[in-house]
Design goal:
The complex is a heterodimer of chains A (277) and B (350). With 277 residues, chain A is mainly alpha-helical. Chain A has helices at 5-18, 20-49, 63-81, 85-92, 95-100, 106-134, 145-176, 180-196, 209-215, 219-232, 247-274, and strands at 59-60, 235-238, 241-244. Chain A has 11 helices and 3 strands. The relative contact order of chain A is 0.16. Chain B has 350 residues and is α/β, with parallel strands linked by helices. Chain B has 12 helices and 16 strands. In chain B, α3 packs across α4 (131-144), α4 crosses α5 (160-172) and α8 packs across α11. The chains are: A mainly alpha (277), B alpha/beta (350). Bound molecules: adenosine-5'-diphosphate and magnesium ion (MG).
């Protein structure tokens, strides 16, 4: 077993902490999402939905907590989806050449970049949960210490798998394309349906059937559902909609994301082995 | 040390007094060909590089130098022919080849956001060097390349020459058997270039074999033990700088006369004149013997024909003359436009 991927991880993290602007923006961005989008939306949603009577016997969750899970999903989606862009610049400015010319197997590059992406995603997730709790998000309400711990591990696992999937996707695009403009437009195009055809920020129950069906396969939905299961429990209501998650639901989230990540891993291996120096 | 390598049918012993004359080939290339689509970039090339020597490919832009380097360093798949580096077949054992070599690419490729030390550290890490070895090697190399004072400077804040030196240090991190350098001094002024040569000589003294490509005559001439002149994907001639020059003749006379055509005919009849070429204004006369023996005779014959000599210029054949002689053209017209292709704008080429 070789551990060269650690070198790639080391370099990535070194630069992450060196670029103060990059570091700070990745810390601030999730907080901004919560502070501006979250608070503003939850105020109006809660006002609009206050007339709906809460479902008896079910814990009612405010919109802020509901969308908190979505914000985590959105935030890691964007940073991982655009995370591969740096590979394109590395390729363009020949930074990759040294590594590609070394005896290091290509999958180590993917692994190293993936791990650093996951680290950054964990930092952001922690930021959102921490800041969210501060402004009144109802994550882990009434949980014991052990339950909270399990919930956090569950969330991090899901976030990790999800991040790897999108990083591999974005890395594959980066290594295949020649110019950043092309990459930018592909990513923007990709992020639109991912963003809107999901239950990250609002329930999909009122969607047309087709979109609702599609949203079930959206990794963003799978992640948001998984986080809600761990953070809010398996039985709650929000805006008059009753959410119940079974073990099968959470298994689907895990397996779906795992399937997605493995497919993307295969794609990126294929693309990376193709790349010429 | 006993047998250090017994691959590909040759056996090398080192330091035992056996066969010390017979130096091993660190690079062996046999009938190498390479095409990009219909463009034949490398056309049936064979050569060997001996252990411990500095070997140069001298040729104009587009001659196929980088292609050969990329094949030898396993960055490009070999299409036709055979090549072994440090005893390993580049087609079958690319991993062992990669572990045996250091590379300084034609374009700069340093991580500008990392310091001098960090760049070296990263290289050591991806080649799985243990930490202690890394630290020691970094110190040695900073000393060798005189970058000790810059160890914590970001690569982007180094001068062009320093960046190149850092790349040199990086290429040597793993103590490679062969160091490949693709146009290492392209775009540098002559002082920077000469300084680079000094480092390369020092590296050679430490026992590293060096393979480099260049389109600078002086670089091939002054730095290399042996040179292959390469043009249009073919090796035209190989030898030491002196051998190549001596093959041309002992001395070279430039003549300007009132009737160059007639003079050329007269001179060609003289036995010790090896070749006469007519330029627009002057004649280039290559001599097989020392100029002192034959100059009086030449002057006499021209005067007898009633032709006036306006200029006589005598010199030893230079690398330029060698190049023109073998390729039929100068390097000048083939010189790359450095503004466009210099190393500062890495990534634009290829
Ligand atoms: N990646 C490539 N694709 C197509 N043609 C190439 C490529 N690289 C080099 N060539 C062509 O092959 C020939 C040799 O190029 P190269 O090996 O770079 O020469 P040199 O290094 O001596 O300048 C040139 O005609 C060049 O245009
Ligand atoms: Mg070249």
């Amino acid at each position: 077993m070789n551990f060269e991927f650690r070198a790639i991880y080391w370099r990535d993290m070194l630069k992450f902490f060196r670029f103060k602007s990059m570091l700070i923006s990745s810390l601030i961005q999730p907080v901004m999402w919560l502070a501006f989008f979250g608070l503003a939306m939850s105020e109006s949603f809660d006002k609009l939905t206050s007339v709906i009577p809460p479902i008896a016997g079910v814990q009612n969750v405010d919109y802020l907590s509901y969308m908190g899970a979505g914000i985590i999903a959105m935030d890691v989606l964007f940073s991982s989806l655009f995370g591969g862009t740096s590979l394109m610049f590395d390729k363009k400015y020949s930074l990759l050449r040294e590594t590609l010319a070394s005896p290091v197997p290509r999958y180590h590059i993917i692994l190293g970049v993936g791990l650093s992406g996951v680290t950054k995603a964990f930092i952001q997730t922690s930021m959102i949960i921490g800041f969210g709790k501060l402004i009144g998000m109802d994550f882990f309400m009434g949980y014991t210490f052990t339950e909270t711990l399990i919930a956090i591990i569950g969330i991090f696992l899901l976030v990790g798998i999800f991040t790897l999937g999108f990083l591999f996707l974005s890395g594959s695009i980066a290594i295949t394309l020649e110019n950043p403009e092309g990459m930018q437009s592909i990513l923007t195009l990709l992020s639109m349906p991912l963003f809107f055809v999901s239950n990250a920020l609002y329930p999909v129950d009122a969607f047309p059937a087709v979109l609702r069906f599609l949203s079930m396969f959206n990794p963003l939905t799978l992640l948001a559902d998984g986080i809600r299961y761990f953070a809010l429990g398996n039985n709650f209501s929000v805006m008059g909609i009753h959410y119940m998650y079974t073990s099968a639901d959470i298994a689907i989230s895990f397996l779906g994301l795992l399937f997605f990540a493995l497919t993307m891993l295969a794609t990126s291996l294929w693309r990376f082995n193709k790349v010429d120096v | 040390m006993g047998i250090i390598e017994s691959d590909g049918g040759h056996l090398i012993r080192k330091g035992e007094g056996v066969d010390l004359e017979m130096t091993a080939n660190v690079i062996e290339v046999n009938r190498l060909e390479h095409s990009y689509g219909s463009v034949k970039a490398v056309d049936d090339i064979s050569f060997n590089v001996k252990e411990g020597e500095i070997f140069s490919f001298l040729g104009p832009n587009g001659a196929g130098k980088s292609t050969v380097i990329n094949i030898l360093t396993t960055l490009r798949k070999i299409q036709k022919g055979e090549a072994r580096v440090n005893g390993y077949d580049v087609a079958k054992d690319s991993k062992s080849v990669r572990k045996s070599i250091g590379i300084v690419f034609q374009m700069l490729c340093l991580d500008h956001e990392m310091t001098v030390c960090e760049n070296l550290e990263y290289h050591g890490k991806i080649y799985s060097m243990p930490k202690k070895e890394r630290k020691e090697r970094i110190e040695e190399l900073l000393k060798l390349t005189e970058l000790e004072g810059k160890r914590d400077t970001l690569a982007k804040d180094l001068s062009g020459g320093m960046k190149r030196r850092l790349e040199l240090a990086r290429g040597l991190m793993t103590k490679p058997a062969v160091l490949f350098l693709d146009e290492p001094t392209i775009g540098f002024d002559i002082q920077t270039r000469m300084r680079m040569w000094e480092y390369l000589r020092e590296i050679k003294r430490e026992g590293t074999t060096i393979f480099l490509t260049t389109h600078y005559m002086e670089e091939a001439d002054q730095l290399s033990d042996r040179i292959s002149i390469i043009d249009h994907g073919k090796i035209i001639v190989t030898g030491t700088a002196d051998e190549l020059k001596n093959k041309l003749g002992k001395d070279l006379i430039y003549l300007e006369t009132s009737d160059n055509k007639t003079v050329a005919e007269i001179l060609r009849a003289i036995e010790s004149v090896k070749a006469v070429t007519e330029d627009t204004k002057s004649l280039r006369v290559l001599l097989g013997v020392d100029v002192t023996h034959v100059l009086p005779l030449i002057m006499e014959k021209i005067r007898q024909a009633g032709i006036e000599i306006t200029t006589v210029n005598i010199k030893k054949p230079s690398m330029d003359d060698v190049f023109v002689h073998y390729t039929g053209h100068g390097l000048r017209e083939g010189e790359p436009k450095e503004k466009e292709e210099g190393i500062e704008i890495a990534g634009v080429m290829e």
